[in-house]
Amino acid sequence: MEQIAYYIIILLAIIIGFFIMKKVAGCVVKLIITLVFLVILAAVYFLYFSAA
Q: With a cut of 50, which residues of the chain have pLDDT below it?
């Protein structure tokens, strides 16, 4: 009977870990996209507006 409880706890931990990783991965993707956008904006600014 203790083994069933052990497996249930492990299963719940895996499910909770999956959802946490999914949320964190979503935030990381948004962060990377934002950083790439900011780098592109900075490059455009320095290439076109600082030379003028």
A: none
The C-alpha torsion from 24 through 26 and 29 to 34, rounded to 10°, is: -100
Tokens encoding 31: 């962060």
CA–centroid distance for 49 within its chain: 33
d(CA 43, CA 37): 10
Residue 20's identity, in one-letter code, is I
Dihedral angle computed from the Cα positions of residues 35, 41, 42 and 47, in that order, rounded to the nearest 10 degrees: 150
Q: What is the CA radius of gyration of the chain?
A: 22
Query: pTM of whole model > 0.85?
Result: no
